[in-house]
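## retry 2 of 3
previous attempt timed out at serialization; input unchanged, resubmitting
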Amino acid sequence: MSTADRDYDEKRDFIRMRMNAQAQIYVEGESAPLTALCQDFSAVGMSLVMDQPLALGSQIRVVIESPNEQLSSLDAQAEVVRCDADGNQYRHGVEIRGLD
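## retry succeeded, writing output
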């Protein structure tokens, strides 16, 4: 299955939720976290907007704290699969590899 076919299937199979949530990004091999804005989220991935680009294939940890103590925070292992310049920011597509 080609990437385009898989992307189409994912769009059909998983609901994408729009959001504007602050996220902390931990890049494998780096010590300090980066800040991102998570703009949408699905069962298999998310869109992150950042001030700096991340390399394709980067292994990252995404942490989004829950504003509600009754809901768990998100802590996901992910891989950067897309990075597009958008003015002075970068929109990243990340594929979720696992949840902690």
